[in-house]
Write a structure and sequence with these properties.
The chain has 236 residues and is an alpha/beta fold. The protein has one domain: 3-Layer(aba) Sandwich (Rossmann fold), CATH 3.40.50.150. The protein is built from 8 helices and 8 strands. An 8-stranded mixed sheet has the order 6-7-5-4-1-2-3-8, with helices on both faces. Helix 5 links the parallel strand 4 and strand 5. The longest helix is centred in the first third of the chain and has 14 residues. The structure holds S-adenosylmethionine. The site of S-adenosylmethionine has 23 residues, from loops. S-adenosylmethionine binds next to loops.
């Protein structure tokens, strides 16, 4: 991916600041992810760490072995995330990787959840990212795709802010389309919610033989052919 768009965004003082109305959405995301104490979570596209910090606080509650593996291909965003994590004092619960989902080196078979929060339309190769998620998760682990807007509202916002013309955002499938696409790839979808200010699709990695459940059919989720690769792993 050309990270210029997000590098410029990361440099802004208000980088990806949540508006008051969105804070409730973030609380909703955290409560839907619960229980998190002791959980091991991969956070894809962590940006400046707005979700990483509360996630890290939640997984380390009770002093357990919970961890967040936060990854983002944009160096500026990773820098902001590192600062936010340090300021909150949750460094011991976070591994930060400057990498795309597709190129991440997060350890496989160790994670209870893979959370794609406000990142799905920016992925270069959704098939590759989904395959990574499948490998990261323990059998029965949960995949979550969440946004703070419905798909139409998000698409309109990306058009307005120039992400579409910059080539860093493609159409967000509706929650129902995404659910069907995941089912066609062998995931067991357990929740599908979409409203103007809400988007939540949760699915479980099946515990049986994946080959039994996988189909290569299912359209509508597209691909931007601008493959990303991990640059480094920085554990903070
Ligand atoms: C709209 S921002 C959201 C950031 C964060 N999730 C938040 O809500 O504050 C999208 C983020 O996705 C990252 N991103 C873009 N392509 C990605 C990819 N292929 N894999 C992982 N993250 C990606 C961008 O660098 C950016 O930080």
């Amino acid at each position: 991916m050309d990270t210029d768009f997000f590098e410029k965004m990361a440099a802004r003082p208000d980088a990806l600041a949540f508006r008051e109305a969105e804070r409730e959405g973030v609380r909703r995301v955290l409560s839907r992810l619960a229980p998190l104490a002791g959980a091991r979570v991969v956070e894809v596209g962590c940006g400046n760490g707005r979700l990483t910090v509360p996630l890290a606080e939640a997984v380390s509650e009770g002093g357990g072995a919970g961890r967040v593996w936060a990854l983002d291909p944009c160096g500026g965003m990773c820098g902001k995330c590192r600062e936010a994590v340090a300021a909150a004092g949750v460094e011991s619960a976070v591994c930060l990787e400057e990498a795309s989902a597709e190129g991440s080196r997060a350890p496989e078979g160790e994670w209870d959840a893979a959370v794609f929060f406000r990142v799905w339309p920016h992925l270069g190769d959704v098939e590759a990212a989904l395959e990574r998620a499948r490998r990261w998760l323990v059998p029965g682990g949960r995949l979550v795709v969440a946004n703070l807007q419905g798909s139409a509202e998000l698409d309109a916002m990306h058009a307005r802010c120039g992400a579409v013309s910059a080539g860093v955002s493609r159409r967000m499938p509706t929650a129902q389309e995404l659910a069907e696409w995941l089912e066609a790839r062998g995931w067991r979808v357990e929740a599908v919610r979409e409203a103007a200010d809400d988007y939540w699709v949760a699915a479980r990695r099946r515990t049986g033989t994946d080959a039994e459940n996988v189909s290569t059919n299912g359209a509508g989720c597209g691909r931007m052919d601008n493959g990303n690769h991990a640059k480094e792993i920085g554990v903070i």
